[in-house]
Automatic annotation (TrEMBL):
PROSITE patterns with a match to the protein in the record: THIOREDOXIN_2 (PS51352)
Classification via Pfam families: Na_H_antiport_1 (PF06965), Thioredoxin_4 (PF13462)
Membrane topology of this protein: Multi-pass membrane protein
Keyword Transport annotated: yes
Identification of the protein by name: Na(+)/H(+) antiporter NhaA
Keyword rRNA processing in annotation: no
Amino acid sequence: MLRAIFKTEAGSTTLLLAATIVAMLWANSPWGDTYEAFWHIPVGLTFGDATFSLDLRHWVNDGLMAIFFFVIGLEISYEMRLGQMRDRRLVAVPALAALGGLVVPAGIYLMLNAGGPGAVGWGVPIATDTAFVLGLLAVVGARCPDPLRAFLLTLAIVDDVLAIMIIAIFYTASLSVPALVTAVLLLAAIMLLRWLRIWRAPAYIVLGFALWVATLESGVHPTLVGIALGVLVFVYAPSDRKLIRAGEAVQELTYAPNPRAAVEATRLVRMSVSVNERLQLLLHPWSSYVIVPIFALANAGIRLDSETLSAAMTSPISIGVALGLLAGKLLGITLGTWLPLRLNWGVLPGNLVWGQVLGGAAVSGIGFTVSLFIVELAFEDPLLISEAKIGILAGSIASALLGWIIFKLAWNRGGVCAPPDAAAEPEEERPELLSTPVGPDDHVRGPADAAVTVVEYGDFECPYCGRLHPILEELRRRRPDVRFVFRHYPLRDMHPRALAAALVAEAAGRDGRFWEMHDKLYAAQRALADADLARYAAELKVDLSAPIAARAARIERDERSGRESGVRGTPTLFINGVRYRGRLDLAPIIEAVEKARPAAAPGKKTP
């Protein structure tokens, strides 16, 4: 999940949003009656005298969504065995945050609906829509660092597991014991095949389909089958032996191309990667680009006439769902994060700060896919279904706007991207003077005989450095006699793309284009992925193929000089070798520059 989903999040979210809009337009068009009529068309399978039939919406909700949850099960299995969820201290915080994000929204909803006809819908506001959340974070860009994405993805995994458990336990209307026993026996058969290491896809497909039918007939929601089967799929790290054998087979194919060598190389290369990862690669695009948009098309068609909207505005169901998503998720996830940190039960990945966590908690109130899913299970009355769906839309939109505002405020407020140990050393104990004078190896812009030199220790992914960049550009325009120096200080724990960007800038510097790349990186600060950096290098005709050792050493020299000068965060400025402690705004920086100028000779004007 932490790897493949980044490749599809923006595109799949766009398609999901488009499907939602189409469903809304369809349901509210002059042909709105055809929306429900279409999704209630029965479609069935016949085996002799036996008939198995569902309407189109149930095929989507009970069938296609089982595949969606199968992919989630694959991701859970991978993360628990090889991924971030192996580290209990990293999992503890998002797991308890997910629990808080379930309990508090449900509690808020029940405060408004306990004892009423809507009480059964308490599960509607508990789920976070991972696809929409990641899509919004992709738009937020550099304001949301990768450690926050990792935190929210781990939270989403736990959230999905808890939601499926709630669906299985609380939204099962009636149980058929014979069908349930059959489902248990089929699941045992699948586990036996796995234990015997029999990897024949047709056997698993047949048994899996039979298990889905038996579970559906038992009364337990079949999406539970998807999660269970996904978790059971074998996952392993590639062993050295398998990698060596695959490498040898590819080498043999290179030396003597022939069909037998090609088949053997293909087999060994495929076997070096676990079935789990191969299935994720195969199914994730289908889940993201096909299944979830079809689900939205089948379930998001809410009738929004004046009567429905006026009823929803006073409906405890709509208000409970909207408040549960907006306030419940923010409060629950925040408390669920604070408590384990306070008790030292776990840590946040990548040294996240509270502004980022609050933004992530707010956008987690976007509850769409699973929330709509639970609505169809919880209610039968079309009016209650409509009110609950309106609450989902209102709460999700409000949560997205609140998250956007929090990220924007966190991005724009004054300060530095300081690592956690910055506060450990009192400010007065840090050196006041620049430890390493400006030399011929520095990146310098401005006259060599300048009376004032401004040295910046910066990080290309730091949002505050990005905010400072146009200010320094304006200063350079107003004071052309000032010399500017840039030194690298990538905060690697907080900004995982910063070092790669610095390496690309150094490659440009080797070709005499450092400042061009410097300006381009800050102008496109929210797009610093490897593909983006390669594109910028190609645009400036910068060669990235040379060994990186010299560039890395150059960056390390800057970092060392920064540490010796007391730099703890970015951006940090030194004006004529003295640490600047004022606000990072144009007027105070200009004032500091003017104060740093040597006294002008009599009769000579200071520019």
